[in-house]
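Researcher: I'm comparing several assemblies side by side, and this is the next one on my list. It has 723 residues spread over two chains. Same procedure as the others: predict the full complex and return the structure.
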Amino acid sequence: MNSDELRAVAEKENAAQAETKHRVCVCTAAGCLSTGAAAVKDAFKKAVTEAGLGESVEVAGSGCLGLCHAGPLVRIDSKLESGTQSHLYVHLDAESATRVTTEHLKKGQPVKDKLCAIDQPFFSAQTPIVLENSGRVDPERIESYIAAGGYEALLKAITEMTPANVIQEITASGLRGRGGGGYPTGLKWSTVAKSRGTKKFVICNADEGDPGAFMDRSVLEGDPHRVLEGMAIAAYAIGAEQGYVYVRGEYPLAIQRLRTAIRQAERQQLLGNRILESGFNFRVDLRIGAGAFVCGEETALIASIEGKRGSPRPRPPYPAERGLWGQPTLINNVETFANVAPIVLRGGAWYASIGTPKSKGTKVFALAGKIANTGLIEVPMGISLRQIIFDIGGGIPGGHKFKAAQTGGPSGGCIPVEHLDLPVDYESLAGVGSIMGSGGLIIMDETSCMVDVAKFFMDFCRDESCGKCVPCRAGTVQMYDLLNKITSGEATVGDLAMLEELATLLRDTSLCGLGQTAPNPVVSTLRYFRDEYTAHIVERRCPAGVCRMGSAAAAH
Amino acid sequence: MAVARVVVPPHPTSDKRYKMLDATIKRHQAQPDSLLEVLHNAQELFGYLEDNLLIYVGRSLKVPLARVYGVATFYNFFSLKPKGEHTCVVCMGTACYVKGAGEVVGAIEKEFGIKMGETTNDNKISLMTARCVGSCGLAPAVVFDGNVEGHVSCECAVKRLKGWTHE
């Protein structure tokens, strides 16, 4: 395929879309699929055919529409004389899909009892860049992505820019690693570009292991080509010819969509040999993870791709110099790669104009826990937590009170009510003892016990420790046992001191990020909710009423 | 990487599943680094990884059995024991946990007398937990025989499983 053919595909697809009056986008992301979106899509197709609307209505699957708790979701874009009007339907089933077809699509009367306001803050306060195609592009058809301007950035990079130009643009954008570390992406790219090696590799880290995070999953399921395009641009910039997507085995739909996307892109010569009739070659292969959290650590991930146990190794040398099979390797997260195409197309300066001086651009968060609107959101950096939780998230349901927000999963910390007005960026979150993390944001109310939450994360780390280094292997077990003692009402004040000592030890002496950050949930809950720990130890009671105090507590 | 074609000896039994596994091994040109991919396929075909299967994979890929065993036991996804007829996977991700997934597990454990990771005596149900199935918007989520269901209560989970035992 060359540039003319790419544009011809886009024009043909756009022309086909222009002929239809209504476009029915059924959310086919994992959340909606598990509430019956496939049946809704079939019902729409059947009803549309039966009503003889086949010519003017297009029924398509789409990526995540965001409001996961109200699924199955369907958005209908209707072309009117005044412009395009969108309606969002929630909680649909086969029966109501038929009703929407006759009332809305045929008679032009939206079905009010199933409608959801599209101008509410949940939608209007967002700034979609990574998710701009999600819900608009059919993830299983490359033509749909091309029609939305897909692969234009790759074309621009290959035909108009040198690899150094591309890296310059990425550096100028101020993009930082979205996996949680926040390392400047441009700097990483230029290090790999400068490293010497017979071969270089690009790896996309899609081993989204944080419990409570589903951003990467939604991007891969909703817009897989965006990630592949980002990887191809990266490969061009650093001089790689082979890439891998390391995706969790727990995400069968993402795997299937990626497979389809790679096959389609290869057929269109957008991946493979002589991409867009240039001299640039880039192949992408999938590697399926097998359920090990530690494989999110880059050296462990590399070991796993090499077919070994996912054990990390000491750094340096960093993968940028010696990575996969000892060759220079670029590893970025799904969301980082998804940011690449818009930056190349619109320029680094445009991206840098969004966000705060040190944290540019937007961040995708997965809102979950005790919050009214659970789902996926994308907001500019620097927005306050209060805006995220109360404006976009709709606050805490059931008349409960906000207690804390947990960011960064098992490596992160909690943010209490006094820091609600904190701007969300890498530095501010680190300043209050939490981390940006990959984007999981779990909201807790007064019915959650913070000691129990800390124990939950320690249990996770204890289970997921690979066992290579002693501080992590033994330390997480000891810390878990101490937390268990506290939550069963058998601990002494000395145990608390021991817990704090172990926390410092693990942070300072563990081999990789897993062990170094494992104490974070404990340290941060101790910092803000020390009184809860004391209540468990001294008064032998759980203020939230979650922990069942054992016999020791009864005897007290 | 230029690789010489390796001929994998077919398994002596005429079990069709071995033929399918051989095809996967061939597709990866019997490269030792394809161990995870091959084990994934083996588990898909056989349901679990029994000793003979591990030995066979090791020989085919020219990987020492110690490493095959090491990899198979390192990753949570691989199971060395057969599973029950039905599987119930309770998501224990943070979102599900704060919304009561722990109680769902407790209710099932109490009702059926099994613990997490165990199978009932009649080999009908295996109870497992997952780190996070990524359906946090539907918390608490449970995967019944591969189908994710959201907003699952203790009663509804137990009822579902009882349906399986009475089949």
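Model: For your comparison table: The mean pLDDT of chain B is 88.
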